[in-house]
User: Fold this.
Amino acid sequence: MKGGPLICTSSLFPRADWYAQGLVKRTPGIRERSPRDRFGPFSERHLQCAWFDSALRPARLVTTDGEEVTVEDPGLWNLEAGPDFLGAALLVGPGRRRLAGDVEVHIHPSDWKTHGHGADPRYAQVRVHVTYFGGSNDNLQLPPGTIRIALRDALISEPMFSFDNIDTSAYPFAHRPSAPPCQKSLAGWPPDTRGAVLEAAGEERLRRKAERFSFAIEEKGAGQIFYEECLCALGYKTNKAPFRRLAELLPVDILRREAEAQPLVAYALLMGVAGLLPDKPSARWDDETRQFVRSLWDAWWKRKERWEKRVMPRSAWSLANLRPANHPLRRLMAAACLFTAKTPLDEKVLAPPPGPLVEKWASMLEPKQITYWDHRLALGGKLQKERIALLGESRITAMLVNALLPFTAAMQPDWLAKAGVWSQLSVEADNSIVRQTALSLFGRDHSPSLYRDSLHRQGLIQIFHDFCLNDRSKCAHCPFPGYLESNRRMA
Assistant:
């Protein structure tokens, strides 16, 4: 099914409007959107990460004049006012001339002029203007000798790259004072009103996800996008990118057609294209493991010739220091079971049986088939007495929040608005962003009940990304406190 409807903000996300009101005006840059190409909405922060991290930055860069660029040093990430990166070093052109100076990052070339950098002496040493889009250099007032690099084409050519896979919180950001202004603003608010702020921000976060899904569904179809997002959610933090790439290389329609409702065949295909099928048996394997791997090779061998040009390198996966339950070998079996059922999973999600919606969804995400992994945590590992679920409660909750909920919001927003889904969501696993933002907003002695459910935690994450990550003034010039005060009556 092609085409997702427009997101029904008023009915499904009524409080998102409160959070978003005036947000673009008060915090320029944090909600700049790309047109509908391969990437959905992203911020300058994402581009800064892509420039700063050599693992994200494209290997081949060219200036807008066509000169090749080698980045020796992306520069020091600037946490104060001024250019994004200080003291970068690049080699440019056929003569490999060395260019040293500061770097400023924008979505569009015209943002340089819009933000008034040309008249700001702090930007006088900028020698590299990095943007996502290309475009005209007319009247930008860039410092003399500045080169321009547009990242869009280079990023699109990287099959493993996705802005969704960038953990922006992993990169440098300014330390916060012990009692930031936003905490002082919220100190006198009753708990229900403070909770309403988080709910509004949480709804806005989910609304943005639903919007991205809607755009992507128009391009690839509902079933494929649902499949990609579910696999991405299965990948945990360190393997989101390769799981998403696998879903692109082995589309769900082909997986279902090839597997013919046989999870073992689907698993062999997923393992084969992922490049994770063992090349040879291990001396430590027991007979059950040897037979299991042989059955996978029997299924893969019949199809290998058609797929070998798409096989991913094993190096694409992060396999070290993983909890056994999170290993891709187990997660791929879950995917094989979920996406080979007679009725496609995305159709079941949109037409659940009567009863509490989230409970029914969670049940759909629990593979019911008997598999090799029911009593093992590793290939050839020791048999466990108790059955080990392929997906634990925390991973199912992550899939609900990050895949099923925004997908349904993109496809059937009015129906979802009536389902009372917010009160049914379980609490997501705690993380450093949630803890840090709650500490900033509510102080050291706050009650965790302030963010008691997933919607509140989504709100904390959204506030962190919209305000904390983009503040270089150590809270002195952050617009959030003033934003809170001016909109308090609406919360």
Observations:
- The two ends are 38 Å apart (CA to CA).
- Residues 355 and 443 are 39 Å apart (CA to CA).
- Confidence is low (pLDDT under 50) at residues 27-36.
